[in-house]
Amino acid sequence: MKNLKLQKLLFYGLLFVMTAIYLGPFLFSLSISFNAEQDVFSWPIKLLPEEWTLDNYQRVWQDLPFGTWLLNSVTITVIQTICNVFFASLAGFAFARLDFPGKNIIFSLLLASLMIPGIVLLVPKFIILNEFHLINTYGGLILPGLVSVVNIFLMKQFFETIPKDLEEAALIDGCSYFRIFWQIFLPVSKPALAAVAIYTFQGSWNEFMWPVIVTTTRDMFTLPVGMAFLKNEFSVQWPLLMAGTILISLPTIAIFLIFQRYFVQGVASAGLKE
Question: Is the C-alpha dihedral spanning 224, 227, 231, 232 positive or negative?
Answer without folding.
Answer: positive
